[in-house]
From TrEMBL:
GO terms for cellular component: membrane. This is Teichoic acid ABC transporter ATP-binding protein. The keyword ATP-binding applies. Belongs to the ABC transporter superfamily. It comes from Paenibacillus donghaensis. One of its GO terms (molecular function) is ABC-type transporter activity. Keywords: ATP-binding, Nucleotide-binding, Translocase, Transport. Residues 5-246 form the ABC transporter domain. Pfam families: ABC_tran, Wzt_C.
Length: 403
């Protein structure tokens, strides 16, 4: 795979001044006094992008996406680290950037072409396509200062994609256009992708990234949190957005005691009739339809327990209850005599789609009315996939064309 963009240990510090005057004071200070605080917008980011990749850049507001893209285009320079770009970039970064507000739309097309390294004749070959794509009617002859944000987006997009770039960077520009224009842009981006153009795409709609991009990078507070196949990264990102910063990292695969169990002993407290002593899961991250297996060890301390039952419940991190069968409801008899027992709970084809999940295990009697021992959130697991469906669970279904 040919690397087209190589980002190595890139850090970007911004200087923050409390008052505008402080910047001036600092520049004239003989004693070299500091009037600013430093803010790290990007922190030691390293990754590379291969030729032909469509990579989505994900992250909440202020996570450093624009800063990174501006450094790739050369508008900003890194404080530390290096960025190597092997191709011609066409970028729609901030609406209106690269346009002269006093010039007409038509004159700005030539100006943009010039900045991309095309001479007037070369732009003359392209201008009709650009104007047709922008489709803003007679506004093309008006100074761009009178344009609406939608018109800006149309013109910027039309120019960027009609100049045969090696790398196309689209930062949120699609969000301003109407649906018809968005569709047209996506069609054109697909065409460029098919021709091998590398595309960097920032969108606040993760589904768009899932559908359009093969890769994704997730920035969080200036740090590259995850990088990989787009659908898997979007699942992680969406999970983080829904459940907060602690989700995912809290996924545990720990059994109640990681040490081997001691010899079986009756508890000193005679009211303790049975305990779940160990819970373990076969993996901590799954793909949909993989086999999930939870092993539950429990101990029974009295001979008189009727209707002993085990239950396993799966929850989202927000405690939305997804599924909770028990051995009584399903008429499965489990050992009830004094001693140590083990049960395997097996889902042969896990139907969950993306996200992280937690598991509770309980042991009860009397049809579940009396709880003997309950372990909440005793372990967790995550599910991520290549993009093939949306939602929490995959339901068996079929499509029938009626007409
Ligand atoms: N010129 C600047 N001077 C000081 N701080 C800046 C400057 N530009 C950006 N920042 C800060 O750097 C951080 C990253 O900003 P950046 O615009 O790269 O984020 P972003 O992920 O693109 O956000 P958004 O989704 O809102 O566009 C933010 O906290 C922002 O306030």
């Amino acid at each position: 795979m040919e690397k087209i963009i190589d980002i190595r240990n890139v850090t970007k510090m911004y200087k923050l001044y409390e008052k505008p005057m402080d910047r001036f004071k600092e520049s004239v200070s003989f004693s070299k006094r500091n009037y600013h605080e430093e803010f790290k917008a990007l922190d030691n980011v390293t990754f590379s992008i291969n030729k032909g990749d469509a990579i989505g850049i994900l992250g909440t507001n202020g996570s450093g996406k624009s800063t990174l893209l501006k450094m790739i285009t050369g508008v900003l320079t890194p404080t530390n680290g290096d960025i190597v770009v092997n191709g011609k970039i066409s970028a729609i970064l901030e609406l209106g950037a690269g346009f002269n507000p006093e010039y007409t739309g038509r004159a700005n097309i030539y100006l943009n072409g010039l900045m991309m390294g095309y001479n007037r004749e070369e732009m003359e070959e392209r201008i009709n396509n650009i104007i047709e794509f922008a489709d803003i009617g007679s506004f093309i002859e008006q100074p761009v200062k009178v344009y609406s944000s939608g018109m800006f987006a149309r013109l910027a997009f039309a120019v960027s994609i009609n100049v045969e770039p090696d790398i196309l960077i689209v930062d949120e520009a699609l969000a301003v256009g109407d649906i018809r224009f968005q569709t047209k842009c996506i069609e054109k981006m697909k065409e460029l992708k098919a021709q091998g153009t590398t595309i960097l795409f920032v969108s606040h709609a993760p589904e768009q990234v899932k559908r359009f991009c093969n890769k994704a990078a997730w920035l969080n507070q200036g740090i590259l949190k995850a990088l990989g196949e787009s659908s898997e990264i979007v699942d992680l990102y969406e999970d983080f957005m829904k459940n907060g910063p602690d989700s995912g990292s809290e996924v545990r695969t720990i059994s109640i005691s990681s040490e081997e169990l001691n010899d079986f002993q009756l508890p000193t407290n005679p009211d303790v009739l049975a305990l779940v002593t160990k819970v373990a899961i076969n993996k901590d991250s799954f793909k949909t339809f993989e086999k999930l297996e939870i092993r539950i060890d429990y101990e029974v301390y009295a001979n008189s327990i009727e209707d002993l039952l085990l239950g396993v419940a799966i929850y989202t991190p927000k405690r939305e209850y997804i599924f909770g069968p028990n051995t009584h409801l399903e008429k499965v008899s489990i050992p009830t005599d004094i001693g140590r027992h083990s049960i395997n709970y097996v889902i042969s084809e896990l139907p969950l789609l993306g996200g992280s999940f937690s598991v509770d295990v309980g042991i009860f009697n009397n049809e579940g009315l009396v709880c003997l021992d309950y372990k909440q959130d005793i372990l967790g697991f995550s599910v991520s996939n290549k993009y093939f469906s949306e939602g929490i669970v995959y339901m068996k279904h079929r499509w029938e064309v009626v007409k």
